[in-house]
Amino acid sequence: MAGPTEPRGRPRRRRPLDAEERALWDHVTRSIKPIRPPKRAAVPVIETVAVPEPEPAADKPPRAGRAMPIPVVPVPKPPGPPPLTPLEPKMRRRLARGAEVDARLDLHGMTQAAAHGRLISFLRGAQDSGHSLVLVITGKGEAMRVLAGEGGRGVLRRLVPQWLGAPELRTVVLGFETAARGHGGEGALYVRVRRIRGGRP
Description:
The protein has a domain at about 110-190: 2-Layer Sandwich (Ribosomal Protein S8, Chain: A, domain 1), CATH 3.30.1370.110. The chain is built from four helices and four strands; from the N terminus they run H-H-E-H-E-H-E-E. The chain has helices at about 20-30, 90-95, 110-130, 155-165, and strands spanning about 105, 135, 175-180, 190-195. It has a four-stranded mixed β-sheet with strand order 1-2-4-3, covered by helices on one side.
């Protein structure tokens, strides 16, 4: 016969665990890892406040009564006169053999003032005419006594080279040098005339 059955609907009473069972239960629960990790404590968020950068200090106005330095701008020097050029060796040889010049000027018997004016007029006319080489005769002056004041061929022999090399004639005179013996030697000068390009130089 089957034993007596407990009436349905009544909860079964759980008996308390004895000391050995409780020790076993504690050992088992310690070895079990929890399914969900424990919640971490919320880390407090520290708000950063942007500090505006300091504005650059405005330029201080100059003190009253204090003069500001003025920069010195160098002034370019005006170009100097073109240099004088000597005769080419080929032209020199041709003149020594007796080749003719384009024009000639004889300053014999003129005073310094008259000779200077005549020389400038002659050279400018030679340039306008398209001449490239002219002869200026001054005279040697050995047999002539230098007169007091103006005049004298010896004086003109010294002054004419100075006039030809002056800046006022550098736009006309390209170069000059002592003439060959057949054209007067030391008493005359070959003068190269600068050509006009696009109007007066």
